[in-house]
Amino acid sequence: MAETTEAPIDVQLTSIRNLRNELRRHAHTELTRVLSEHTFVGFIDDRKALIQYQTRLYMVDYCKISFHLFYHRCVFDFMNFGRILLQPAPSIYELALVAAQELGDENPEKSAEEVNMRFVNNSEMLEEFFLIRISDIGTVESMPMIVKEYSPDYDKLPLFLYNAAFSIDWENEQPFLKGFINALASLYALEPPLPDDPLNAKEAYRLMTEHRIFPSFKETSFWAPNMLLTENAVIQLADLPDLYRIFERC
Question: How far apart are CA 137 and CA 120, in angstroms?
Answer without folding.
Answer: 8
